[in-house]
Each structure stands twice: as structure tokens, then as C-alpha cells.
Amino acid sequence: MQLKEKYLKISTCSLMSNTQANDGIPPDVLSKVKKYLQPFQLSTEMLQEVSARLRKDLIRGLGKHSHHKAPVKMLPTFVRATPDGTEKGDFLALDLGGTNFRVLHVRLEEAQKVLKMGSQICTIPQAMMVGKGEQLFNYIATCLRHFLKSQKLKGQTLPLGFTFSFPCEQLEIDKSILIHWTKGFKCSEVEGKDVVQLLKEAIHRKRDCHIGSVAMVNDTVGTMMSCGYIDQSCEIGMIIGTGTNACYMEEMKNVKRIEGEDGRMCINTEWGGFGDDRSLADILTEFDVEVDKTSISPGVHIFEKMISGMYLGEIVRLVLVKMTKDKLLFKGQISKALGTPGQFETKFISEIEEPDSGLENAMKILTELGLVWDPVDASVVHLVCDTISSRSAHLCAAALATLVNRIRNNRKLDHLETTVGVDGTVYRKHPTFSSKLQKAMRLLAPQCNITFFVSEDSSGKGAAITAAVAQRLAP
Ligand code: GLC
């Protein structure tokens, strides 16, 4: 508690001066609103402290004896090399990580060209996300079979990259045990099992469907690999979408949990789990606590729940409900939609923060939510969205700064130039998220010059590229 007050009172933070967001709010209302929002505003000093805590957790996660209990899992991926641009051929990619499941046919050609020959999106019904594991894998195999048929690929045996964006203990490139589900999934009989095996069995059950060797990757790794195919200085992959996570190339000698001292290996940090040992309790707001408590997995992925698309809308909703109950908004009248969990979607935040049409969008959204609003209400909602998305971007920056500073120290460099491959709807679709994150990075990692390489579909394409690198390196 003491710590919380100390950090919140520091007023030197140059990250929070968004006066534009205050436009249209009378001073007396503004001072009341600010009391609700203050716990979300983390000073530069607090972000440095968050980064220092994560630094310690990275080391715990890599340790031989400490990794079992570490909240940040630091999972070895068995990806030992980034692409060199010479990889070629035809590959399949499966991408499962959110409400959509995708199948792709990718061709890697001369001059680092990645051609998407075809793709198909299948929506995973909500019931399937929490149903039987076998049903989920059968569905994946059915989609794959349908895709192969439509692309006239049936009868061919192509190598397959499988992006599975959940924390897995990877034993080999094609053997990977699911530790636990995240992001609203809770299928039975998958945790503790090898997901590559489950996939192969489901495909086998289809009888007339065949695949070649499998390379399994997390979406962060897929993103790093697909960006790395074009820009060889890419050594970090970051996702800020439904969930959040990053991977990076770590020196093998620091990965104490596995044998071997030479070279590097890509580590999937699973930074979403930061705070699961209560190490972030002093910066959690009452709204974060509520979001966690009412989620399908309480106590799991606390950091992710402060940052990612699955939760941001709900945090905003809870703040708006509280302000309305306290008669600061909508004349104290909560509509049915505003009172219902999940009804304030994260995409509304992006729409409300659009530089030109934001206020207009806010008014439309509030009307659709059945609220009776006035222009001051719309401005307050805009300020709430801005505050919560800014906290998300700043926390991401604190985590990313920890990684780049670590790489710089590992290599004993005064200055590091590096590229981060990024994907995820929050980063790509929110109008100011990337600039907020980059501004914070300049403060938190001043000795690192970072190029952000954003690409769509990168995790799927990256899985295909990983399969190609694995093939290139195979003895
Ligand atoms: C969740 C998953 C992680 C994934 C991230 C982004 O945090 O646990 O594996 O990379 O979401 O999709």
C-alpha cells in the first residue's frame, strides 16, 4: 500500500500529458473523474520498477531449480536460429490462438518472397472453446481437410507449421505439452498432453488427409520468424491482441533449465503470467481485481488481464459502471447493455480514440448501448478509454524494455539496434497504441534503437517459415 502511494504521487511523468483527452470536460467534473483514473496512471518511475521486477522474474524462469514455480515461464522453444532468407518450398500452416482458427498454404520463394497461396478462416464456437478437447481437434482436422480439398492439395504431403498460442512445455520442435489454457479456452483433456500428438491423431482419424513433418510454434515465435525472414535483425516477437506475450533470442548459457552452452535459443517468455505470484498487487486497481475474479481463469495471467484485447473493454465498462453509480455519468442511469459483462467491446476503445471521428463514434456507441448521454459524458468516456489504453501501452513498453535491455546486457553493448516483429489487433488497430508504446520505450530503454516491424498474418506464415528452417537445419 505504501509503495502504491509513493509511486502514484510522483508527478514527473512525461507520459501522461494528454490534455487533448480532457477537452470538453468542465474543471469540477474533471477533478472528480481524475480520482477514478489516477490508479491507472503509472509514472515513469513505477514503469521502471515494473521492468526491474520482470527482470528478476525472467531470471527465475530461466533457472534450473527456480523455473518450476516461476510466474513468467520462459519456455524454451527449440528454435535455435532465425531465418537466413534461403528457405524455400511449399508449406501448410495452422494457426490457433483466439476465436478464429486459420489454415494457410504458403510458398517461400527466391528473394525472401512469402506468397500466401490460399487461406481459410474457421470461427471457433464459444461452446467448443470450453468443450471436449477431442471435439476441438476434430474440428481443426475437418477445416484442414476441407481446405486441402478446396486448394487441390489433397494427396500431397506438405510439411506443416502449427501455431498454437498457449503456454506449452516444448520438448522438441514437434512435441509440446500444454501447461494450461489462457484467453477464455478451457477444453477438457488437453492440459498436460502433447498437442502435436492430439493434432496428428485427429488428422489420422480423417483417413484421407496427410501431412508431412510438423513444427510447432507459439504465435510470438511465428511472428519473430516471419519478420526475421525479411529483416534478419529481428530477434524479438511480440503480440498485443486477444492476449499478450513476447519471445526473444536468449544466450544458451543463460538458459540454465536445459543442457548446452553454445549459441542462442528463442525463449517464449509467457509474460502474460507476470504478477501471478501477486508481485503486481500494488498496481492492480479494484477493476483489475474484478476482471480477474470474474474470468474463466482467476489468478492466471494477471499482467495479460491489464493489457490485452480480451480484457480492456471490460475494464473500461467496469469504470463506467462505477462512475454512473456515483452519478458522474449518464445522469446516474445504467443501461442493460452497460450493466452486462462483455458488452463494451475492446474495439469500441479504438473507435472512440480515433483522432478525427472519436467523439462522434463515442456518441454512436453510447446510443447503441442504450445510454442517455450528453456531450460531457462522451468526453469523459473518451478520457476513460485513453487512460486505460495508455496504461496498457505503457505496461507493454515496460516489459519490452526489459527484454531489449537484457539483450543489450547479454551482448555487453553500449547501444543496441534491433527489430521487433509485432502482431495483434490491439497494436494494429488502435489508433495511438503504437505511438504511446514507442514513446514510453524511448524513456525506458534509451540505449536501444528499436525498429517495429508490423505484419498481418505473421504468426501463421511464421509457423511455415519455422517448418522451413527446421528442414534446413535437419541433419
Ligand atoms: C496468451 C498465451 C500466449 C500467447 C499470447 C498471445 O498469453 O498464453 O501463449 O502468445 O496469449 O496470443
Q: Which secondary structure elements does this structure contain, and how are they paired or packed?
A:
Layout: H1 2-9, H2 27-37, H3 44-62, E1 75-76, E2 89-96, E3 100-109, E4 113-123, H4 126-129, H5 133-150, E5 160-164, E6 168-172, E7 175-178, H6 195-205, E8 214-217, H7 219-230, E9 234-240, E10 244-251, E11 264-268, H8 286-293, H9 302-307, H10 309-325, H11 346-352, H12 358-368, H13 375-410, E12 416-423, H14 425-429, H15 433-444, E13 448-454, H16 458-473
Parallel strand pairs: 2-5, 5-8, 9-12, 12-13
Antiparallel strand pairs: 1-11, 2-3, 3-4, 6-7, 9-10, 10-11
Helix pairs in contact: 3-13, 5-6, 7-16, 8-10, 10-11, 10-13, 11-12, 12-13, 13-15
Alpha-D-glucopyranose binds at residues 97, 165-167, 182-183, 218-220, 239, 241, 243-245, 270, 272, 301, 304.
Distance between the termini: 56 Å
SSE string, helices as H and strands as E: HHHEEEEHHEEEHEHEEEHHHHHHEHHEH
Query: How would you classify the helix and strand content by structural class?
Result: alpha/beta
CATH topological fold name of the largest domain:
Hexokinase, domain 1
Rg over C-alpha atoms, rounded to the nearest angstrom: 23 Å
Overall 3D geometry? globular
Summarize the structure in words.
It is a single chain. This protein has two domains: 314 residues, Hexokinase, domain 1 (3-Layer(aba) Sandwich); 129 residues, ATPase, nucleotide binding domain (Nucleotidyltransferase, domain 5, 2-Layer Sandwich), CATH 3.30.420.40. The protein has 16 helices and 13 strands. It has a six-stranded mixed sheet. Helix 8 packs across helix 10 and helix 10 packs antiparallel against helix 13. The protein is globular and about 70 Å long. It starts with a helix and ends with a helix. The N terminus is likely disordered. It binds alpha-D-glucopyranose (GLC).
